[in-house]
């Protein structure tokens, strides 16, 4: 089986690791009550806060601006406020209970959906526990409200996203040929970080 974390690092190039460290992760994991996958933490520590290939944003738990913890709390509150008892008039693909086999929909909790990244196209990506609670799966919702399950690691999901596969449902590819663009997010109103590119990919 491919080492998708190594493949992602090879595609993105050396990360600066500006805010890497275990303390902020430990605090966030204690707040939510679960550990984030190690590959997700490694990618976030290496590059975040960053926007990748114009669309996908990664935030970091150690920063006040572009805070992953704050984003999880705010995004979870927004999704939890929706009327999840309306499944009788939802299409099956719009009913997260049906797609993920859930009895109850929760957000931002250890036994619920934890938002981990999003795009400027209105797409959200969540961690959700596997049915046997042996680990996590990836689930994504596109802008029209359709949900999709991906039983794979975050690094595999990200690798497939970057090589142009449909990773937020059919026809969702956001492929750009050439090196991957990484745009560090500004840490103050006056900050103007320079964009960076990963190595040539032969694509």
From TrEMBL:
InterPro entries: Knr4/Smi1-like_dom, Knr4/Smi1-like_sf. Keywords: Plasmid. Coiled coil: none annotated. The keyword Oxidoreductase does not apply. It comes from the Bacteria. Residues 22-159 form the Knr4/Smi1-like domain. This is SMI1/KNR4 family protein. It comes from Kitasatospora cathayae.
């Amino acid at each position: 089986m491919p080492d998708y974390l190594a493949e992602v690092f090879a595609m993105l190039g050396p990360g600066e690791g500006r805010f890497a460290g275990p303390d902020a992760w430990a605090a966030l994991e204690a707040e939510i009550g679960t550990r984030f996958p190690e590959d997700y933490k490694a990618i976030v520590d290496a590059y975040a806060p960053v926007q990748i290939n114009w669309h996908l944003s990664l935030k970091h738990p150690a920063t006040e601006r572009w805070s992953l913890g704050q984003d999880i709390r705010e995004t979870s509150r927004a999704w939890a406020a929706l009327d999840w008892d309306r499944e009788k008039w939802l299409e099956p693909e719009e009913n997260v209970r049906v797609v993920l086999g859930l009895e109850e929909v929760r957000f931002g909790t250890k036994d619920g959906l934890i938002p981990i990244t999003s795009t400027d196209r209105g797409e959200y990506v969540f961690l959700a526990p596997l049915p046997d609670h042996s680990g996590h799966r990836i689930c994504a919702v596109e802008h029209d409200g359709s949900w999709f399950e991906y039983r794979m690691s975050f690094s595999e999901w990200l690798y497939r996203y970057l090589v142009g596969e449909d990773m937020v449902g059919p026809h969702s590819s956001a492929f750009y040929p050439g090196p991957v663009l990484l745009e560090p997010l500004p840490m103050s109103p006056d900050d103007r970080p320079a964009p960076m590119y990963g190595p040539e990919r032969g694509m």
